[in-house]
Backbone:
């Protein structure tokens, strides 16, 4: 089967299943540490992954991807040229209470092809048993009111649900809970 | 994909655009697979534009992969029990272009159908010589290769007398956040396909076939190992006329 371009059709997604956390497997020892502990302005981001009954999801995998603090990516498809060696990627398996964490820095704002600016944000992938495909969300910061108000993605989200994309602050760390379904369901995106 | 001319770079950002492929994938709400019931979003997904964060992705280099990581049969003192197999193929995008230098992670049950995981309570033996984890980087042609043993089928509790067909899990990054893919590779002719809600969550039979590897006699290693071929196709970025040469179209 081929696509309209004549190329091959894509491979379907399947669930990550309950057993991805084998010894030496997907949860890398340094997975949650997007930056080292001594990095200037590093902070912790903590959250819980919850199901439609409000119960913790203890067998999930949360991944995050972001620009560096200047809004740059070490990537050839960033046409502004690479100015960073930041890894920008984190991965954390959820614990028995559904909890996950990352240590990172705040990404810079990003220009869009339409000439707008996206507020600082982190893209998130959630994988778990019972999720046949990943779900994707975004984390924004609570103290960026002006940038958030001008953000071209946030502004398209129903105002009642916009808050699910904005982190809270708790005990000196940012907090971002992910609710897969039901009351307070997090906004998820198709990319 | 390269960015074509960047005149006025500061105010005109040209980004690749990745083709949507929703029809390839299972619905998050698939009642036959019971674990989806409380884990699928009930609100519709909102469309996210493909801006800088989405068209870039982690460049995970060779430092994540050691020499022996692709060979699951040499990670311990002795050899694992089971049928030794080679699983190899290419990582491509839906424009037919190879995806070079990308991390491929794999994990699986042992030959008896048991994972080395505390949560796996299937009363089949663990194999002290098998962890079931492999990783490798694709080469410049998008090729990858694992040596392993054929995983066993195993029971689970989704429905009465439920069994998972033998499979190997794959995790791929591609080169952009949009291309991230987690899938499972199945073996040809498995008699358990018809009753497996995860395999059948992909409704299009042709799409299901794209999760099944092919037996590949040509690349067997005589008197040593059988071989299976499995190409993995990620979303392509819309080809510009320049890049749409006829050199790398196949399948």
Residues:
């Amino acid at each position: 089967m081929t696509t309209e371009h004549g190329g091959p059709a894509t491979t379907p997604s399947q669930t990550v299943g309950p057993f991805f956390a084998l010894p030496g497997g997907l949860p890398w020892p340094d997975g949650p540490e997007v930056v080292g502990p001594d990095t200037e302005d590093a902070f912790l981001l903590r959250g819980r992954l919850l199901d439609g009954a409000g119960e913790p999801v203890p067998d999930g995998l949360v991944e995050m991807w972001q620009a560096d603090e200047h809004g740059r990516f070490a990537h050839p498809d960033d046409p502004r040229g690479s100015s960073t060696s930041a890894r920008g990627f984190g991965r954390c398996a959820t614990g028995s209470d559904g909890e996950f964490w990352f240590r990172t820095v705040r990404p810079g704002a990003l220009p869009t092809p339409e000439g707008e600016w996206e507020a600082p944000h982190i893209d998130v992938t959630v994988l778990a048993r019972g999720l046949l495909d990943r779900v994707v969300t975004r984390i924004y910061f609570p103290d960026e009111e002006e940038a958030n108000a001008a953000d071209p993605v946030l502004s398209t989200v129903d105002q009642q649900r916009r808050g699910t994309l904005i982190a809270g602050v708790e005990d000196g760390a940012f907090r971002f809970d992910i609710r897969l379904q039901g009351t307070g369901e997090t906004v998820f995106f198709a990319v | 994909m390269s960015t074509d001319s960047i005149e006025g770079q500061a105010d005109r950002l040209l980004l690749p655009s990745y083709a949507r492929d929703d029809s390839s994938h299972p619905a998050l709400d698939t009642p036959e697979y019971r674990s989806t019931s409380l884990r699928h979003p009930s609100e519709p997904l909102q469309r996210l534009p493909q801006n800088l964060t989405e068209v870039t992705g982690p460049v995970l280099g060779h430092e994540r992969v050691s020499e022996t990581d692709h060979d699951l049969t040499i990670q311990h003192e002795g050899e694992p029990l089971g049928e030794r197999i080679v699983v190899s193929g290419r990582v491509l995008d839906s424009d037919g272009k190879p995806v070079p230098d990308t991390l491929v992670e794999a994990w699986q049950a042992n030959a008896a159908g048991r994972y080395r995981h505390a949560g796996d309570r299937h009363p089949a033996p663990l194999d002290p010589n098998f962890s079931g984890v492999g990783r490798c980087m694709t080469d410049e042609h998008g090729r990858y290769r694992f040596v392993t043993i054929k995983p066993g089928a195993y029971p689970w509790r989704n429905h009465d007398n439920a069994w998972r067909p033998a499979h190997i899990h794959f995790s791929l990054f591609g080169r952009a956040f949009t291309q991230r893919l987690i899938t499972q590779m199945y073996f040809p002719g498995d008699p358990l396909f018809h009753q497996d809600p995860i395999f059948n969550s992909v409704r299009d039979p042709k799409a299901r076939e794209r999760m099944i590897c092919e037996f590949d006699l040509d690349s067997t290693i005589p008197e040593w190992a059988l071989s299976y071929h499995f190409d993995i196709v990620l979303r392509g970025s819309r080809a510009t006329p320049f890049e749409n040469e006829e050199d790398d179209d196949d399948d």
About this structure: Chain A touches chain B through 82 residues (CB under 8 Å). DSSP finds two helices and twelve strands in chain A. The mean pLDDT of chain A is 95. The helical segments of chain A are 145-150, 159-162.
